[in-house]
Design goal:
By secondary structure, this protein is mainly α. It contains 13 helices and no strands.
């Protein structure tokens, strides 16, 4: 009986191994299918516009075809302009993101934990949250000049609010039983936040990081309107001022690509189940 059972287990193991080698893990196949499905709409629209312009059904002067946009990106890459602008924008987003994450995490934790701090600080932050990004530009130029400080701080403002709102709300929604356990063990306020509240709110916090990063990419466009001499926002404005729609759309494509790549990396590093668990 034991020999038969062992043979059966080995046979089952062999069949599972063979199926895994042949088709890969089910989760990975499912993820690859979703990944390919997400390309259907943009690729289909791009091909449709390419065909429409080639057949003279539409004019491609103000809305260039994807092939022309690709040629523009390739030309910018060959002469080194694209790399310069990409690195400048990435650096601004990185510094602004780190600054916004720091401020949003600290104030979100404080206002979520202490009722008095929330009543004192939250109304002002809620009012500031509704100010459009462009409205900050004149004041930031007056306060900090047109150099890197004003640009980084503007990006940090965009990153700050999603993190602050999500974290403070998540801390207030933590099960009170966990808080009581911390009080039984006589945790200090610092230990209560670091050892109980922040771990309990980690999934919501990671989502807020992705939301903040997305707003950071939106705010960097406004930031690079403030007298920037390099960056994708500068390239976009330069295309508008010189009447080159292909350069404008090439900048937009670069923004979209960088935003998607950085969001993917953040999700993978944080171990979100919808991405990292299926790779």
């Amino acid at each position: 009986m034991s020999h038969n059972a062992t043979a059966t287990e080995l046979a089952g193991t062999s069949s599972v191994t063979a199926s895994a080698v042949a088709g890969g893990p089910p989760g990975r196949r499912h993820f690859q299918g979703q990944w390919l499905l997400g390309f259907l709409l943009p690729v289909g629209l791009a091909l449709a516009w390419e065909v429409a312009v080639a057949l003279k059904w539409a004019d491609g002067r103000l809305l260039p075809t994807p092939s022309r946009i690709a040629d523009t990106l390739a030309g910018l890459a060959r002469n080194g302009e694209l790399t310069t602008h990409l690195l400048a924008t990435l650096q601004r987003v990185l510094f602004g993101f780190l600054l916004g994450v720091g401020g949003g995490t600290v104030l979100g934790a404080v206002c979520g934990y202490w009722t008095l701090a929330r009543r004192l600080i939250d109304p002002t932050l809620q009012a500031l949250r509704n100010i459009p990004s462009i409205a900050w530009v004149p004041m930031f130029i007056l306060w900090f000049g047109i150099f890197e400080t004003s640009k980084i701080l503007l990006i940090a403002v965009g990153v700050f609010f999603p993190i602050y709102l999500t974290l403070s709300g998540a801390i207030m929604a933590v099960d009170r039983k966990l808080v009581e356990v911390g009080r039984i063990f006589r945790f200090s306020h610092r230990d209560m936040i670091l050892r109980i509240l922040l771990p309990a709110t980690l999934p919501a916090y990671i989502i807020s990081l992705r939301s903040g990063l997305g707003l950071g990419w939106m705010f960097v466009v406004a930031a690079e309107f403030m007298g920037a001499e390099e960056g994708l926002g500068f390239l976009l404005v330069d295309g508008q001022q010189t009447g080159r729609p292909a350069v404008i759309l090439a900048s937009i494509v670069a923004f979209a690509t960088l935003g998607k790549v950085t969001d993917f990396l953040l999700a993978a590093v944080s171990g979100l189940p919808d991405l990292a668990g299926q790779l």
